[in-house]
Amino acid sequence: xxxxxxxxxxxxxxxxxxxxxxxxxxxxxxxxxxxxxxxxxxxxxxxxxxxxxxxxxxxxxxxxxxxxxxxxxxxxxxxxxxxxxxxxxxxxxxxxxxxxxxxxxxxxxxxxxxxxxxxxxxxxxxxxxxxxxxxxxxxxxxxxxxxxxxxxxxxxxxxxxxxxxxxxxxxxxxxxxxxxxxxxxxxxxxxxxxxxxxxxxxxxxxxxxxxxxxxxxxxxxxxxxxxxxxxxxxxxxxxxxxxxxxxxxxxxxxxxxxxxxxxxxxxxxxxxxxxxxxxxxxxxxxxxxxxxxxxxxxxxxxxxxxxxxxxxxxxxxxxxxxxxxxxxxxxxxxxxxxxxxxxxxxxxxxxxxxxxxxxxxxxxxxxxxxxxxxxxxxxxxxxxxxxxxxxxxxxxxxxxxxxxxxxxxxxxxxxxxxxxxxxxxxxxxxxxxxxxxxxxxxxxxxxxxxxxxxxxxxxxxxxxxxxxxxxxxxxxxxxxxxxxxxxxxxxxxxxxxxxxxxxxxxxxxxxxxxxxxxxxxxxxxxxxxxxxxxxxxxxxxxxxxxxxxxxxxxxxxxxxxxxxxxxxxxxxxxxxxxxxxxxxxxxxxxxxxxxxxxxxxxxxxxxxxxxxx
Length: 613
Prior knowledge:
By secondary structure, this protein is an alpha/beta fold. Helices cover 49% and strands 12% of the residues. The protein is built from 21 helices and 16 strands. It has a seven-stranded mixed sheet, with helices on both faces. α4 (88-95) runs parallel beside α18 (520-529) and α10 (255-265) packs across α11 (308-319). The protein is globular and about 80 Å long. It starts with a helix and ends in a 9-residue tail after the last helix.
């Protein structure tokens, strides 16, 4: 569709020049449903300001001077607007052509997401982060970027220490093969929280000792055990990663000290001799974060302990290539293919010819509560005094999202108010299977289809809304198999597949299409199909998977409306297989383009499109 809009725009620019006006663009938009025409332009408004003329009169003169593109049958003015009517056959013929391969743009984007504490099972609050980050990575890759997905492992934090100490404190040993290790460890974490009420001092001492052992790297294998168990969940969701970055490696590689040195050498970090920050290392962020009540941000306390944001600054500096320092090894082979690498003290500076980090753009997927620390991290890039840092400042993004509540309650792993992703996925698949078997008793592989539908419903529930909106996770809404859900889109795809299968079984060859027999109804559906490229571009530019989700719903709805359309006498007038020869084949090609487009957009969200439901 963009080709058609560009052709109209260029024709309008040339027409404007013939009237003595100079414009570089002429906006062209799809005409709203119920209005005459297929595309329209308000360009006469801009020309009216330039030429000091009446916009409606200018629109009429502009139309007279416009040489219509071949795909346009006619055009007409509606007041100051110019509306264009496509030739249905030519327009559909353009639309049903398979899309060209996207050219790689050579731009490397690092996306950090998931980053779940390695101390227990992941819950549906984490699900939003995972699905949002994974979808953004898929969208950017489809739009031509080279993507690198990183998962940050906080293996020196208190949460990991508490869970590992809980094993020792309660004298437990994992031997339950029916319960995943991360779930088992999570139960001990919650128990330890309750035990603090009566034995706080001993527990605090034990946790502190465990944290020191973690910092020395003595318990890395235990943390790896948790990470591998969590990865089983993330992989089941369809998420894939390129690199695990361990906090102990970030600290051990001196990123913090190097980041501090860059800021100090650039004159943006200092140690006051007096006042409340005496002896501490502080960074003045007022130039880039004006209006703060306190513009001095403490990076390292006077006692020498680094603030958490200092680690993040060092990590961000490494992501954009301001310095090297990590070594790498292989961690696992991921389901469906693809090696997952990891930072490792015993690794190599380069593995499998890969160069990690050195990003042209960095996207950190972290909830909105971390907006202030993330703003400081980004500001540190601008204050680095380096061209690379200043460029990275412009191209670093905090993809903030609101929290997920559970049936109206804030989730708390410590209090045990959570719903694990594993439980949610199992329930989603179970519900999907029940519906599928009821509606299609003869389906040959109900378990496979149920998994695709259940997982699709779960993922879609996390991306169908704007990231800045709170999601209250409720079973009936998140796992809905109707309405604004993935199953609704999947069903439209399955319907298209069914039509195409029936045509193939009947020996009908779509190549024998007579596009000249198509009408406005097909043109309208084709216009919706043709929006796909523009939606992808917008989603990549705005880091907004919800636009893909909404477009998928709109296309599915447009297809269903076309499929069920009736004429003024109440008779179906968009039948495919029963249509006359030539028209039948043309409609089949349109149906196939709908099928292809629905599947492609679901794939951008990490959702499968089963051919049968």
